[in-house]
Amino acid sequence: AQSVTQLDSQVPVFEEAPVELRCNYSSSVSVYLFWYVQYPNQGLQLLLKYLSGSTLVKGINGFEAEFNKSQTSFHLRKPSVHISDTAEYFCAVIFNAGGTSYGKLTFGQGTILTVHP
Amino acid sequence: DTEVTQTPKHLVMGMTNKKSLKCEQHMGHRAMYWYKQKAKKPPELMFVYSYEKLSINESVPSRFSPECPNSSLLNLHLHALQPEDSALYLCASSQGTHPYNEQFFGPGTRLTVL
After folding, report:
1. pLDDT digit string (tens) for B59-93?
2. B79 closest CA partner among B22, B14, B33
3. Got the DSSP string for B7-22?
4. What is the residue-wise DSSP string for B53-65?
5. Contact in structure between A109 and A22 (CB atoms under 8 Å)
6. Which A-chain residues 46-105 have CB contacts (< 8 A) with chain B?
7. Which among A1, A32, A6, A13 is positioned nearest to A81, based on CA atoms?
8. Is A7 helix (H, G, I), strand (E, B) or coil?
């Protein structure tokens, strides 16, 4: 079965500390991987994506993620967080089954990151 | 202009009402999407339009009826909804449906069904 799992529903962290948000997937086909952020009462914004090539991808707002094919993971990291990073973060996957599968983003359950002063 | 706009922001409707949600983009995108996001849950894909044709319907009940009258506009017509249909409805658009094309999301319409 194809699935996306975010292992932590909530992650509290202090300002300027590093953070890692975890994402694992299960798939029998190749995948395209994404991280989105959702601020309260807003839509989603793309942070970064892995499509092919280098497994370390850098995104906006100082975030980066590493694709690990053997571990089927795509964890999101930031070396030093700010109060303004408080939001919900979604890992998302497109399972490459060809054809119309290209349009289908499947989201994990989300991780609420709370940055404390 | 990298904005997707959605109207209305909030909508309250009864189970016998008919209403419509509207989504608009002026980025020249040819793919448009409807997602449903229930409280404290991730977004779930409902429909995908590619070049104004419906390409994906994720087995959505017929009380939700999408329409793409032109490449900039996407509607979601609602009829005889149930209280469990209360959710945030998100629209997105992209240049095409290939994963290389970023999906840009609107702020959503928060729907309450009484």
Report:
1. 999 999 999 999 999 999 999 999 999 999 999 99
2. B14
3. E-SEEEE-TT-EEEEE
4. EEEEE-S--TTEE
5. no
6. 46, 49, 51, 90, 94, 96, 100, 102-105
7. A13
8. coil
